[in-house]
Amino acid sequence: MTERLYYLDSHIKSFEARVLACEEKKGAFEVILDKTAFFPEGGGQLGDVGFIGGVRVTDTRERSEDVVHFCESPLTVGETVKCELDWDIRFCRMQNHSGEHIISGIVHAMFGYDNVGFHMGSEDITVDYNGYIEPQDLRKIEARANRAVCENLDIRADFPSAEELETLFYRSKLELTENVRIVTVGDGLDVCACCAPHVKKTGEIGIIKLLDAIHYKGGIRIHLLCGFDALRDYHKRYEQVKTLANSLSVKQDEACEAVERRLDEFAQLRFKYTKLKNELLDSKIAAIAPTEGNVCIFEDEGDYELLRKLADAVADRCGGICAVFGDNGHGYNYVMVSRHVDLRAASKQINSALSGRGGGSPAMIQGMASCDRETAEKYFSEV
Fold it and tell me: Which of 209, 257, 213 shows the shortest CA–CA distance to 229?
């Protein structure tokens, strides 16, 4: 049985321990120590990483009463080794997890909603609640949570007796009866069953920032970050706004309005462009003389919608196939329409001649061709 030092002190960064077992499995070495401050994956928090005897630990998980450390190299059984957590990673996880407890405690107090899902991902934290919260209430929750950080409240972790548990009101997603670890923030801002290590004071958390919220399974999913992770996220967003503002030649607090203006201008230009493109298309169609044979047309654009409109209109003016090709940068997109030829039946021969692929209905086929323009024009002038 591994002694769990993280229950005694969540801020242990290094320690010495004796190697009890080391077994290679699936390319990793599973190491068990007589004691450890490495937290195994649990309660929504990932397992710790770091070093044992200079060997990299890539993950930590619980197995029965032992804690298994997944190492990149073997360690000698019976040897006493120095162990070091990757403290930057562990501390950020504690900041985020403790911040989530504060948010969940406030949500429960304000609305009575339960935390029904918690995931600590690489980008942010997601927390699911079984009820919806309006945006203006989310801002109130965020403000109250950050006030709790400024108050620098104690965060305690205890193992109450069975008798004490019976009289204690606490949040929990499971029915627990023994060895229940209770994490308490302040004088009851939050009381929750949790196996993970936490910071000792709310002031260690730093800023608590709610990033986003969406409707989820009849309730709400909140995305949030705390502490150094929130600071890194702020730096990233600040640089994005700064770059955007510079590119638009406006102040940073004017970037949104500038983007809206540009989008409006773009919409107007797109409307004019579409109008002109349709007028040009009409003039091209009018310029094509009726013929009993095939028509082969080449366009600078490979847009299928444009090719279909042109092919369909010109097909009424020819007695064979109207084949329209559009440059796609590495060949041609094509659309072919005919009122007289079964194009589905002819598609295999056409694609073979044009080094292409595609298909469709008897009246229209579309696809791509990798032949040159001269080959396509010669084919449709001869068939």
Answer: 209
